[in-house]
Write a structure and sequence with these properties.
The protein is α/β, with parallel strands linked by helices and 448 residues long. The chain is built from twelve helices and 19 strands. 33% of the residues lie in helices and 24% in strands.
Length: 448
């Protein structure tokens, strides 16, 4: 049956873009290629992109002229430091200047970012680049043993699962890809029971989706001693920061390894965890990923900085040194798996995933994740900062009977020890509303 679905998947993808199998084979062929050859490939594609952007995209022509630069001045990844960081606001304020002169000759789709900050960005994506992204995803799922045509259960939203207005068309696509798809917008107990019933019938080989959604699903199964009638070879988490306590619950529940991923379509960057779990292998085919300081200087291994992406194949709307809004740390390690692509040691989270404290501290969301791990009755939480001295803590408990003054008092004490004196309001909720993309924001900062 998997062979049939493999053929269907290849045929379906090829109908959309005949390059799918070519790209898939390209990625598999280069999986264990030397770092030097991969870097050479990247920089060759970078030079092509820079020349195209200068000749065809008004924004980049103006930028280069203002900086007294020519395309020949950007020959290597290090040379990218000569260019400023590209932000969403720059793109919005110069939208017409990002239209290539030859756009009418290109095949592309209109896309939008998830808008987790409340302001989604509209952009164009070359059809060939979109196909390359999917080929990379399928090929690098192979780190966990995935083969084309294997059954996938998916719990996610619009950031991962694109839908149309036709239910028939969406169902046909899911059949071709051999997926059973569930929305992450409603993670109520009733809906999670329904997910499990349908997955028990479908019997997926892998589970894929938002880290928080799969974690909530796993915790629901454990807390209610529900029966799983399928055996997973792996779980792919993505789109959100995966915390250690979430990984443990997911792995214990499904008796398999979790393979974390990182990726954005707008600038093409992605990274994938292998069985060694030493970090995430950074894709070097589709894009260039940099970790930089606030001034755009490239940082070395072990230093936390902003993640920038340069898409090497999206000629419909080239993004060069695009600020992803994420924070990450590169690794100095060489993975023992034999792949020589560099490792992303850690995805720290969104730049906005922190709060300011009256005592001057800047406290990242990771601090709160570690706190709540101590309270096993907490199903979900959200920190909302209204003012510098006011924090609202929303908690969804497994059971309201387990909420107790002792734990809440200890929670207040731990937080105040880091923030200094703040007003803390704790709200016990039935649920926390997800973003429009179906993601769970655990830090909401309403002050600048």
């Amino acid at each position: 049956m998997r062979i049939l679905h493999k053929i269907l998947l290849i045929m379906g993808c090829s109908l959309y873009d005949r390059s799918f199998l070519k790209y898939y084979n390209l990625v598999k062929k280069n999986e264990f290629e030397s770092y030097e050859k991969l870097r050479k490939y990247q920089e060759g594609k970078l030079r092509e992109l820079i020349h195209f952007a200068y000749e065809n995209v008004p924004y980049y022509r103006k930028l280069f002229n203002n900086l007294s630069l020519k395309p020949v001045d950007i020959e290597s990844i290090k040379d990218l430091e000569k260019l400023p960081i590209l932000t969403k606001d720059i793109i919005r304020n110069n939208r017409k200047d990002f239209i290539p002169y030859n756009l009418d000759k290109q095949r592309y789709v209109n896309k939008s970012t998830g808008g987790s900050t409340g302001n989604p960005l509209q952009y164009r994506l070359s059809k060939s680049d979109r196909t390359l992204g999917f080929a990379i995803l399928c090929a690098n799922w192979g780190y966990a043993g995935y083969e084309l045509g294997d059954k996938i259960g998916a719990i996610a939203g619009s950031a991962l699962i694109s839908t149309t207005r036709s239910v028939l068309q969406d169902n046909l696509k899911a059949f071709i890809l051999n997926r059973k798809i569930f929305s992450s917008f409603d993670m109520s107990d009733e809906y999670m029971n329904e997910i499990l019933i349908k997955l028990n019938r479908f019997k997926p080989k892998y589970l894929w989706g938002y880290a928080s959604s799969i974690y909530l699903f796993a915790k629901h199964i454990r807390n209610n001693s529900l029966r799983i009638n399928f055996n997973l070879d792996g779980v792919f988490t993505t789109a959100e920061t995966l915390h250690d306590y979430q990984r443990k619950i997911i792995e214990d529940t499904f008796s398999c390894e979790v393979f974390n991923q990182y990726g954005l379509n707008d600038c093409g960057v992605s990274a994938y965890e292998c069985r060694m779990h030493q970090g995430l292998h950074i894709d070097m085919i589709r894009s260039i990923l940099e970790v930089v300081d606030d001034d755009g200087n490239q940082l070395g291994a072990g230093e936390e900085g902003r993640i920038l992406g340069t898409s090497l194949h999206n000629f419909a709307m080239p993004f060069i040194r695009y600020d992803t809004g994420d924070l990450g740390i590169l690794s100095a390690k060489k993975c023992p798996c034999g792949r020589e692509s560099p490792l992303l040691k850690k995805i720290v989270g969104r730049v906005s995933d922190f709060i300011y404290a009256p005592n001057g501290n800047k406290i990242h969301g990771e601090f709160f994740s570690h706190i709540f791990y101590e309270f096993d009755w907490v199903k979900q939480f959200q920190i909302v900062q209204k003012r510098i001295d006011e924090i609202i803590i929303r908690i969804v408990p497994d059971s309201k009977d387990r909420v107790n003054d002792s734990d809440l008092g200890r929670l207040r004490k731990i937080i105040i020890s880091r923030t200094g004196r703040v007003d803390i309001t704790i709200e016990i909720c039935d649920d926390i509303e997800p973003t429009k993309a179906g993601k769970w924001r655990f830090i909401v900062r309403e002050i600048e």
